[in-house]
Specification:
heterodimer, A: 284 residues, mainly alpha, MetI-like fold, 10 helices, 75% helix, B: 601 residues, alpha/beta, Rossmann fold, 2 domains, 8-stranded mixed beta sheet, 6-stranded mixed beta sheet, 22 helices, disordered N terminus
Chain lengths: 284, 601
């Protein structure tokens, strides 16, 4: 399936499967609100107000989700956190796409010794204990958002590379690739014109399944204090802060946790729906 | 059983319809079968023949809508619950499938699978069940039945598996056996044996046989009555012999033509050009192809092709015939340069070619093109038909403008019998026959000197097959294209070839002019192939085909003549000394007894 065919399938999927359509719509709406919300709100996401600490949600003060223990507006903070979380999703999928797909396609198509060496490198990276790896990064370099992206990207492309390599191995034995070789199409052109477009379906499905993993991982790192640092926020740090004030101010936990759960649900539904649609055996 | 049941039909199908949503696959089908009768249901793919069989057995998926009646001795089975159907399945009616490996449970031994049927239906106690299972395996002609009883399905050859599947269908002594394409997945010599076994079993045990097939050649000796269906409807029915001799519908006639091709169709053309001058295009000298296998870590060489030499003249058609494992496809791939481990020499118009296609020059590459077996798989699913056919031009004529390419593609599509409107479609949106035309167009747009067709029509329905063969012939006359046709089907050969090469276990064993081969084969294996090919209009019951067994494992080829374990004319000498190719009549043959044996048909 090519880019165009994949997009057509994507559109057909969204039409035929209501869950997929609803998930897609929800994600888009959340993204728009996350970008526009902070611009519209009278409050800033790092401005503190010690007179208005732990206020319950109310319309009169425009603290729609209430305030936290430093009097910061939770509505804006949650949306700012959502921005970070969605950014993680975009970066993780971009790294997966760029590094994972090309690495896997090259290893699979060239095969032989090149393939063996490239895949052993992947195995070695897999074998590194992930949390130690992240802590090491944090100790050596300054903690920053960029480091979180690097840490998540470094892990996410490995799965993609393996999946793409497997697909490529089976694709290159297919007769249309042999026909291209007979015609005289160069190796590079075969990868570009015949292999990559046919990986599209698998890749798009896998990406939608990687995104929730990356989001969870960022939340987990932030929860441990290894991720996004105060005063910046991500959904993970907000849930962390909310958890410690759960008894006095339940809204501090509820707002970011609900949004995080909603996003995860949507991406998972999207991935599952697309996987079903990409599997010809499940098509009626 | 009530008195008078003999006059009643064993199975009666009334107004049977099967549909999936709006798609009607079986449309008001009516027929009846009496006890011990043999009836064939023939049709092309998508005609609804298998759906009919599944409907009778109650095996359709839940989203299928079934209406009408299937009366087994008067009892309607449509809509019956599983409990009732299970009383009928195995005990009263049983079914065998096309792919015996898929139909047998891979992790239960053959004997166990048979025993369980008897025990689960309460027909025998465990000890008796074992005895009867073993007896059944002997009856279906499994050699060394005691050992096969304990074997697992993957340890058996294709023919053995089909025998085991037949045994499992018959062990509960049903009155009706439904055989759905029972021999389609098998090699032609093995097919002959299975068909003969079915005929014998039917005589011995008085079962009725409903044979479902696309191949009218299979029908002729195995059924008394024939129903031809098309698009879910009955096209015609009648006594098998009469219907095959005088089909009243065009579609039936086409199917008969396809199956009987080599007796009725035009005679093969004479070899070489009229004035006797002959220019060699492709020469292959002592080509061998080896694969390295590593079963259990031990390296082992597998000789797929051994020491084959051949030549193809300009404008000539050569056919290479062999069963699966004969090395015919490996030979073709080695010639075009798709296989790495090949020894020997391939030359084109006198110039020696590099072994791998990647190191051949563009000019050489465009001279030799190939059409593959599966037309849909050989087209990139991500590309439109137009860009698939245009791709060779991008490589070989990069100077051509976009408009020039488009008009060349449109012209080419018309030439292979397609409309230019197809350019925007994708491979999965067109039919198999159309896809094969596209593959041919992609090859011909490079104006090659030679086209290799690797089983290019094997996956197509019979009527489409005729059209594609006609297209290839027309192209050959138009541009003096040389054709190398790889096939397992002798009827394809008859129509096309000047010369025929027969391969067996990687070796060339006979090469003769097309017409000569069909009249006077010189190798016993060639004769076996001819005998095994079922033909719609020829009575067929050769003793030789029935007892010839199956090819030995290519990993462990027999010493001496590779065909000797299956040969009825075998001498002691054949077991130790390998025969060399030698002149015999107008061709060459590798057989010690070529001079003395008369194998004329």
């Amino acid at each position: 399936m090519s880019g165009r065919a994949a997009i057509r399938q994507f559109a057909a999927a969204a039409r035929s499967n209501r869950l997929v359509a609803a998930s897609l719509l929800t994600i888009v709406v959340i993204a728009i609100i996350a970008i526009l919300g902070p611009l519209v709100s009278p409050h800033g996401h790092i401005s503190t107000n010690l007179d208005g600490r732990l206020l319950a949600p109310s319309f009169s003060t425009w603290h729609l989700f209430g305030t936290d223990d430093l009097g910061r507006d939770l509505f804006v903070r949650t949306l700012a956190g959502t921005q970070v979380t969605l950014l993680v999703a975009v970066v993780a999928s971009a790294v997966s796409l760029l590094i994972g797909v090309s690495y896997g396609a090259i290893a699979g198509f060239l095969g032989g010794a090149v393939d063996a060496v490239m895949m052993r490198i992947v195995d070695v990276l897999y074998a590194l204990p992930y949390i130690f790896f992240v802590i090491l990064l944090m100790v050596v370099f300054d903690r920053s958002l960029l480091l979180v992206f690097i840490a998540i990207g470094a892990v996410n492309w490995l799965d993609m590379a393996r999946i793409v390599r497997g697909q490529t191995l089976s694709l290159k034995e297919r007769e249309f690739v042999q026909a291209a070789r007979l015609i005289g199409v160069s190796r590079f052109a075969i990868i570009l014109r015949h292999i990559t477009p046919n990986l599209f379906g698998t890749v798009i499905v896998y990406i939608t399944l990687t995104i929730p993993q990356a989001i969870l991982m960022e939340s987990f790192l932030s929860f441990l204090g290894l991720g996004v640092q105060e005063p910046d926020a991500s959904l993970g740090t907000l849930v962390n802060a909310g958890a410690s004030h759960m008894e006095q101010a339940s809204w501090m936990l509820l707002a970011p946790a609900t949004l995080l759960a909603l996003l995860l649900f949507c991406f998972n539904f999207l991935g599952d729906g697309l996987r079903d649609l990409a599997d010809p055996r499940k098509q009626k | 059983m009530i008195a008078g049941s003999a006059h009643r039909a064993l199975l009666e199908v009334r107004d049977l319809s099967v549909s999936y949503g709006d798609n009607v696959v079986v449309d008001k089908l009516n027929f009846a079968m009496h006890a011990r009768e043999a009836l064939s249901l023939a049709g092309e793919s998508g005609s609804g023949k298998s759906q009919t069989a599944l409907a009778i057995m109650g095996l359709l998926p839940p989203n299928a809508k079934v209406s009408g009646e299937v009366l087994f001795e008067g009892r309607n089975l449509v809509g019956a619950g599983n409990a009732l159907l299970n009383e009928y399945r195995a005990r009263r009616m049983a079914m065998i499938f096309q792919d015996p490996l898929a139909a047998l449970n891979p992790h239960i031994s053959i004997g166990q699978q048979l025993r369980r049927i008897l025990i689960d239906h309460g027909l025998a106690d465990p000890r008796e069940a074992s005895r009867r299972a073993l007896d059944m395996l002997k009856r279906v002609g499994l050699p060394d039945a005691e050992r096969q009883y304990r074997a697992y399905p993957h340890e058996l050859s294709g023919g053995m598996r089909q025998r085991a599947l037949i045994a499992s269908a018959l062990i509960a002594e049903p009155e009706l056996l439904i055989a759905d394409e029972p021999t389609t997945a098998l090699d032609v010599t093995v097919q002959a044996q299975i068909l003969r076994l079915l005929a014998e079993l039917r005589r011995e045990s008085n079962i009725a046989l409903l044979l479902i097939t696309h191949d009218l050649g299979v029908v002729s000796t195995n059924s008394e009555r024939l129903i031809v269906i098309d698009k879910g409807r009955m096209l015609e029915q009648g006594a098998t012999r009469e219907l095959l001799a005088n089909p009243s519908q065009r579609r039936t006639a086409e199917m008969v033509m396809a199956a009987g091709g080599f007796l009725s169709a035009s005679a093969p053309r004479a070899s070489g050009s009229a004035d006797g001058s002959r220019q060699e295009l492709l020469e292959v000298e002592n080509l061998s192809v080896t694969y390295t296998e590593r079963p259990g870590g031990r390296r082992r060489k597998l000789y797929a092709v051994q020491d084959v030499s051949l030549s193809v003249g300009l404008g000539e058609t050569i056919a290479i015939v062999g069963e699966s494992g004969s090395g015919k496809s490996s030979l073709a791939r080695a010639i075009v340069g798709l296989l790495p481990e090949a020894a020997g020499k391939v030359s084109l118009l006198g110039g020696t070619l590099q072994p791998l296609v990647g190191s051949r020059s563009k000019y050489i590459r465009r001279q030799v093109q190939m059409v593959f077996q599966d037309p849909v798989a050989s087209l990139d699913p991500a590309m439109t038909i137009g860009s698939i056919v245009a791709e060779p031009l991008l490589v070989h004529e990069p100077a051509l403008s976009r408009a020039g390419r488009e008009s060349a593609v449109a012209e080419m599509l018309v030439r292979v019998g397609l409309t230019p409107e197809l350019t925007g479609r994708y491979a999965h949106e067109i039919s198999g026959g159309q896809a094969q035309r596209v593959a041919i167009a992609r090859a011909l747009i490079m104006k090659p000197a030679m086209l290799i067709c690797d089983e290019a029509v094997a996956a197509l329905d019979s009527s489409v097959r005729q059209e594609i063969l006609g297209l290839l012939q027309a192209e050959q006359q138009r541009s003096s294209l040389s054709l190398l046709v790889i096939t397992h089907d002798l009827s394809v050969v008859q129509q096309l070839s000047h010369r025929v090469l027969i391969m067996y276990m990687g070796r060339l064993i006979e090469m003769t002019g097309g017409r000569e081969l069909f009249r006077r084969p010189r190798h016993p294996y060639t004769r076996l192939l001819l005998d095994s090919t079922p033909l719609a209009q020829r009575p067929w019951a050769p003793a030789m085909a029935a007892n010839a067994g199956e090819p030995a494992s290519i990993l462990n080829p027999p010493p001496g003549c590779v065909f000797h374990p299956r040969c009825v004319h075998v001498l002691d000498r054949c077991r130790v000394q390998r025969p060399e190719l030698a002149q015999a009549g107008t061709g060459v043959v590798a057989c010690h007894r070529a001079a003395e044996l008369d194998l004329s048909v």
